[in-house]
Amino acid sequence: MQGESAPSSAVTLEITPMAPGTKWFVEVQDEGQARRIGLSRDKAVVGTSPDADIPIRDATVSARHCALAILGGGVAIEDLGSRNGTHVGTARVAEAWGQAGTVIAIGRSTLVIQPGEDVVETSPGPPLEGVAGTSIAMRRLADQVRRLARHALPVLISGESGTGKELIARSLHAEGPRRARPFVALNVTAVPRELVESELFGHERGAFTGAHIRREGAFSDAEGGTLFLDEIGDLPLDAQPKILRALDGYEVRRVGGAGGGKRTDARVVAATHARLEEKVTRGEFRRDLFHRLECLVVTVPPLRERRGDIGVIARVLLRQLQVDIGERVLTPSALARLTAHDWPGNVRELRNVLCRAADARLGSTRIDGDDVDRALRRDGPSVLKRVTPQRAQELMRETAGNLSAAARAAGLPRTSFRKLL
Question: How far apart are the first and last CA of the chain?
Answer without folding.
Answer: 46
